[in-house]
Amino acid sequence: MGALRPPRPDLADMSAYDAREPSVDINLAANENPSNLPHELLATMAQRLPTFPFNRYPDPMASQLRAQIAEANGLDPANVLVGNGGDELIFDLMLAWGGPGRTLLNLPPTFAMYEIDARLTGTTIAEVPRREKDFTVDERAVFERLALGDIDIVMISHPNNPTGNIAPETFLIDVLKATDALVLVDEAYFEFSRHTMRPHMERHPNLVILRTFSKAFSLAGLRVGYLLAHEDVVMELTKVRQPYSVDRFSQWAAGLVFRERVVFESQIQELLRQRDVIEHGLSQIPGVKVFRSEANFVLFRVDRAAAVWRDLLHSHSILVRDLSRVPGLEDCLRVSIGSMAENSAFLKAMEHLMTERRASDMFGTTSRDELDSAVGESGPLD
Ligand code: PMP
Q1: CATH number at residue 284
Q2: Probe residue for ligand 1, chosen from 161, 226, 321 as the CB with the greatest number of ligand atoms within 8 Å
Q3: Residues spanned by the domain of 253
Q4: CATH number at residue 234
Q5: Does residue 161's CB lie within 6 angstroms of at least one atom of ligand 1?
């Protein structure tokens, strides 16, 4: 029998990202765009395919796409780095600015990858938890923590996934002033919030802005993200990144999408209107508390949330994100904004199951244990 030497011992208490996607009629779990690319773009891609040089390695720095992104943001290509989704760039940042003996300042509950990448790279994690009642940042606690002088990197999701709120711009500027740590302002949902820290880049070399093609631009399946940063930061990141991480086709397709990005505008506006529909619809259901969102998802709190999640899945074939076991998000679920039909099916299902629940609670026909028993099926990420 062969033998196998164990891996790094600190992996023992980590678990793999469970990429199993339950096959459901309506998937509102991953903050994706509910529509595929517009037909004209798909047709252009189809036309290009037969002569596309798949046999050739991609351009390591995605020069064409990089130049396009730089120009649109009034920057030099040296200030732009393209990655295999924003996820890869977050990992690169942690490889270069984190690591053993270094410290991340994290503001949980927030995007799970910050903590996961910190653990994978042996980075120490300092936490300033958000306020329980509305997920605002405890600004004083942040400045007190920064004043200790040991923070190497700060990650702020803006808007914050999964709570949907944004921090005041003055707070972000004060953070940039208060520290020489690298400060990532993660603008993955920028096209929905319309708030960016771009105007502050010239004054603050420690500011890094992250964006993605996965949300507003319907490209989650291709994996393309980018960051905007001081050229010295980009230079350091090129030392740790995988040289060919963004494939040739994705570079080309993202370039096409970026050039034609105005075609997404009406869809983004419609998603924002649909977000209002969901926020309003949920807030009308007794027992549901809704948190206002600046992104393409809405967080809500409901008693016995894991049971609601299970009922949505099993009785209505609707998948939302179960966050009820995340510290600070007890009894919270997150729903991504889908198409009008999907959102209305979701709201109907919620009304239906909450009405049923009130009836069974009144007559005592459902035990709490029974409702809570089917936890543990939904993954913790994105
Ligand atoms: N940042 C935040 C806050 C996100 O929610 C996500 C996607 N879930 C990402 C970054 C990364 O997205 P992607 O890797 O698809 O670009």
Answers
A1: 3.90.1150.10
A2: 161
A3: 39-259
A4: 3.40.640.10
A5: yes
Residue nearest to atom 9 of ligand 1 (CA): 86
Classify residue 12: in a domain, yes or no: no
| pLDDT, tens only, 110-168 | 999 999 999 999 999 999 999 999 999 999 999 999 999 999 999 999 999 999 999 99
Which tokens hold the place of 365?
Answer: 């026909």
Query: Rounded to an integer, what is the distance from CA 263 to the centroid of its chain?
Result: 23
Q: Is 43 in the same domain as 156?
A: yes
Among the listed residues 156, 152, 155, the one whose alpha carbon sits nearest the alpha carbon of residue 165: 156
How does the average pLDDT of the chain come out, rounded? 94
Helix (H, G, I), strand (E, B) or coil at 187: coil
Residue 53: inside a domain: yes
The tally of domains found in the chain comes to 2
196 CB neighbour count, 10 Å cutoff: 17
Q: Looking at the domain assignment, is residue 382 inside a domain? A: no
Q: Residue 205 pLDDT more than 50?
A: yes
The tens digit of pLDDT for each residue in 270-306 reads 999 999 999 999 999 999 999 999 999 999 999 999 9
User: Which of 212, 230, 259 is the last residue before a domain boundary?
Assistant: 259
Tell me the C-alpha distance between 211 and 217, whole Å: 11
Residues 85 and 215 in one domain: yes
Q: Are residues 341 and 320 in the same domain?
A: yes
- The predicted model gives 28-50 an average pLDDT of 97
For residue 374, pLDDT over 80 is answered with no
Q: Which of the listed residues 92, 111, 116 should we mutate to test ligand 1's pocket, taking the one with most ligand atoms within 8 A of CB?
A: 111
- Residue 2 domain-assigned? no
Q: Which of 134, 128, 130, 135 is nearest to 154 (CA)?
A: 128
